[in-house]
Amino acid sequence: MDLGIAGKRALVCASSKGLGLGCAEALAEAGVDLIMNARGAEALEASAQAIRDEHGVEVVTVAADVATAEGQARVIEAAAGVDILVNNAGGPPPGMWSDWDRDDFIKALDANMLAPIALMKALMPAMIDKGWGRVVNITSQSVRAPIAALGLSNSARTGLTGYVAGTARQVAGSGVNINNLLPGIHATDRAVSLDGGVAKAKGVSLEEAQAQRAATIPAGRYGTRQEFGAACAFLCSRHAGFIVGQNILLDGGATNVTM
């Protein structure tokens, strides 16, 4: 399928690895030029070069932490005039409700709610002026069904979801579509970290912890970054103009909800 976005420009945050990289790869395959952002310069440049070599698109890299004002300013400057924004950030650490204090919540909000909002506010006006734009926020299945150990993520990402619910409907008439992708477990470094914590707590191997988790997923396996990226690219395509303010699960059926 021709996604109809060749030649457009996209900012993809946290795209040196994992789900963000999957989104960057899928957009590049569709002919989109990229601004790729992540905190680690070495991994970011390696991923960017692989995409340049594979797809021949222009890729600009910005090594910065978008949870900070300085990082946001650098990324916004590089991404001025983009047609597509993919917001993404690593999740806060797991724990118990009694573990977290105010500073922990502020850090989670800065990374997983306030930074995406800042980037939308900065970059959507140009999309509105052009009459076309796409924003995809990578959140979590936990906004539909909270994960007890991820209370920081539950809180911050649900806050972003509420913001998007109203904002998406305010800008849709200008040709700008905002939607959220809600990943379940995928084969990424984040999954290895979470599974490692479970393995330690249960006294089992990492492989055993992964097998136990996979058994809870109706699809019987973890997702791949390529599958996730393809879904993101479709939401960014010309075919997705009637999809507004939606929260789309990519979790292999793991979230047991009817609607």
Write out key terms for the chains shown.
14% strand; 47% helix; single chain; 7 strands; globular; alpha/beta; seven-stranded parallel beta sheet; 8 helices; 259 residues
Quick overview of this protein structure:
With 259 residues, the protein is α/β, with parallel strands linked by helices. It has helices at 18-29, 41-55, 69-78, 102-130, 151-171, 189-202, 206-215, 225-235; strands at 9-12, 33-38, 59-63, 84-87, 133-138, 176-183, 247-250. The two termini are 28 Å apart.
Give a topology summary.
Layout: E1 9-12, H1 18-29, E2 33-38, H2 41-55, E3 59-63, H3 69-78, E4 84-87, H4 102-130, E5 133-138, H5 151-171, E6 176-183, H6 189-202, H7 206-215, H8 225-235, E7 247-250
Parallel strand pairs: 1-2, 1-4, 2-3, 4-5, 5-6, 6-7
Helix pairs in contact: 1-2, 1-8, 4-5, 6-7
Sheet-strand content, in percent, reads 5-15%
Structural class: alpha/beta
SSE pattern, N- to C-terminal? EHEHEHEHEHEHHHE
Helical content band: 40-55%
Radius of gyration: 18 Å
Sheet having the most strands: 7 strands, parallel
Strand order of the largest sheet: 3-2-1-4-5-6-7
Quick one: how many beta strands?
Answer: 7
Shape: globular
Please tell me the overall pLDDT: 96
Segments where pLDDT lies below 50 for 5+ residues?
none
Note the gap between the termini. Answer: 28 Å
Discrete helix count: 8
